[in-house]
Amino acid sequence: MVLNQSTTNSLDIPASSGMTYHVSTNGLDTNLGTAASPWRSINHATSKDSPIQAGDTIEVESGVYTETITLEKSGNSSLGNITLKADGNVTLRDPNPSQGGFREGVIQSAGQGYWTIDGFRIENTSWAGISLRDANNMIVQNNHTYQTGASGIIVLPDTYYDGGEAEVTSSNIKILNNTIERANWNWKTSADLGTQESLSIWGVDGFEVANNIVKQGKTEGIDAKVGSRNGSIHDNTVTAQAIISGTPQGYNGGPAIYLDGNRATMFNISVYNNTIYNNTADAIAIADEVPQQGDVHDIRVFNNVVYGNGIQGINGGSGIAIQSNVHDVEIEHNTFFDNVQAFNIDGLNWGGKKASDITIRNNIFANSTYRNGFIGDTDNVTISQNLFTNGFSELYQKQGALGNLQDSDNIIGNVEFVNASENDFHLLSSSPAIDAGFKGIGAYADKDKDGIIRPQGRGNDIGAFEYR
User: Fold this and answer.
1) DSSP 165
2) Secondary element (H or E) of residue 213
3) CA–CA separation, 163 vs 408, rounded Å?
4) 51-98: pLDDT as tens digits
């Protein structure tokens, strides 16, 4: 198994050192674009005919701008990104909030690279807030999308959707410190389910999705899909997703964080340090919905705090779910509390190959309302040194063809959190989770969710937090 974290911790982009141009609601596009003589439209600044070059910055002064902004040129690796930056409170609105189509965004690009998009509020869009197609070396940070028709932020192919490696069309993308609120709010399909997800990473090689707040989306939350690989999803807060799952349409809302192979192979992805709570359906899911066109493998899920997810009788409400065509997954040092079920490994759910080589170790599975977990039709599963607060007739349910299930050294007892009613899942000094975990976890999990080095005592503590 590949044990390194995301390869995208640095995009090696030099700092912008070029010219700064200005856009203002009081400007004119016939002006020079200086602070004293600003342009009026952002789209004028980003068009192919503007004087903007690699390394330059476009500063947008406070105000409301109703326009579609298309990035028609690129920065480069030698001179740096082109930076599009809000200078104050800048709101962007869709000029046609009920007429846009698939792929479109209020900020959009096709085939461009080396941009930084920083600090905008984007609201009431027909489709996406920010849509980057066939993109490379992009940073999207500090933005707030609100009530978008489809995704708040999406990276996707521009024209090719027939699967395989050809659908992996973007590379080296960072989505950092954004708030994505009420995604999929306006767009309607025939089933009224919305389209895409709150934050979509589609066909991207090399990505980092970090420190975002994703809330109140109608369908899935953060979705890395269709061949996305070599990336990380970390330190995000995801809540109130899959609102549609609370309706008779049931499962259709989807998970809060989803790794979905779907037409192309996905691999080498870390999901860690996220807080995932009060979502209507599943919290984390890993699957390949199209079994003949790739699978999902080499996935690490660790240091996540996952609580209060699912509606019993409406959907599965899994803390983590693994389905078919998935192999080599490590689920370690997570804290699951008050979900409908803590884990659900249904190894043939989508058909194709059984899930295999799944390690579930050093996790807290506490206060599930329906069952601790389920394992079916799966090969080579290790469940060891987890802490269950068991109120059920069996530790977890088993069904179907299970090959080489290894279950050892799990604990049943009270966790003794600092204050679970206030969602403080740190451990009290009397917790049986302290020093009870397996020490041989990969170096990727050598620190806990707070950044504390493991171990602090004789052994690793079970769960997302190390006691000290």
Assistant:
1) G
2) strand 213-215
3) 40
4) 999 999 999 999 999 999 999 999 999 999 999 999 999 999 999 998
Q: Using CA atoms, how far apart are residues 314 and 280, in angstroms rounded to an integer?
A: 9
What sign does the dihedral 9-13-15-21 (CA atoms) show?
negative
Question: 366 near 338, Cβ under 8 Å?
Answer: yes
CA distance 392 to 413: 12
Closest CA to 305 of 392, 365, 360, 245: 365
> Residue 99's pLDDT band (boundaries 50, 70, 90)?
confident
3 state DSSP class of 57: strand
- Name the average pLDDT for the chain: 92
Host H or E run for residue 381: strand 371-384
Confidence of residue 7 (pLDDT cuts 50, 70, 90): very low
Residue 182, C-beta contacts closer than 8 angstroms, at least 6 positions apart: 146, 147, 148, 215, 216, 217
Decide: 314 and 250 in contact? Cβ < 8 Å.
yes
* Residues near 325 by beta carbon (within 8 Å), at least 6 away in sequence: 261, 287, 288, 291, 294, 295, 296, 350, 352, 353, 355
- Cα separations (Å) of 236 from 102, 171, 189, 388? 27, 21, 28, 26
216-225 per-position pLDDT tens digit: 999 899 999 9
DSSP code for 80:
B
Which of 275, 422, 277 has its CA nearest to residue 338? 277
C-alpha span between 348 and 32 (Å, rounded): 62
Considering just the CA atoms, what is the radius of gyration of the chain in Å? 23
The answer to pTM > 0.85 is yes
Q: Please state, in angstroms and rounded to a whole number, the distance separating the CA atoms of residues 459 and 326.
A: 30
Report pLDDT for 100. Answer: 73
